[in-house]
Amino acid sequence: MEKNQFINRRKEHRLPYFDKIIYTDGKKNLTAHAINLSRGGLFLTTLDSLPIDTTGYLAFMLSSHPRSICIRARVAHVVYDRQRSEVECGMGLQFVEPTQAQLNLLSLHMLNDQSNYLALKEILKDEKPNALAVKQLKMKLPGLQHYDLLGLRYRVNRICTLFESQDVSNSSTAA
């Protein structure tokens, strides 16, 4: 399968998400960092992946919710690239039958992050953006902490292209 076909199969866009996740299939427990999240799943960085179609449970936190969330998930794909260090190794985990309450929490989290990214994009349009406003939004988007202004502008604009493509696809289906 070509890379573009795989990416186009995704029903939801993924946003950066940096937190520890616990995954268990009942036999093996794995604690690792996730690097992105969508309403449909997440990507877990690990060099010790489980076999595709392994089903288990994920436990993780969302910044918009005070308690951990436990969702059934299956290993949908595994990435192990020995050639390129810029490619993260790990597992794509697909949520299996999430409850409506879980989907609502994920949606709220995604909408909050989207709003924060779009607000930060507007602030960064200024040649000399308000440092306090940038700092406050970076606190809400922890994956951006280590970027300088140049890197931050690129990363925020890159992430915001996800929202633009959503708007384009919504308008093209309406036509």
Helix content: 25-40%
Succession of helices and strands? HEEEEEEHHH
Proportion of residues in extended strands: 25-35%
Question: Can you identify the CATH class of the largest domain?
Answer: Mainly Beta
Strand tally is: 6
CATH topology of the largest domain: Thrombin, subunit H
Largest sheet: 6 strands, antiparallel, barrel
* Category by helix and strand content: alpha+beta
Query: How many domains comprise the coordinates?
Result: 2
* CATH arch. level architecture of the largest domain: Beta Barrel
Mean pLDDT figure: 87
Q: What do we call the CATH homologous superfamily of the largest domain?
A: predicted glycosyltransferase like domains
Q: Describe the global form.
A: globular
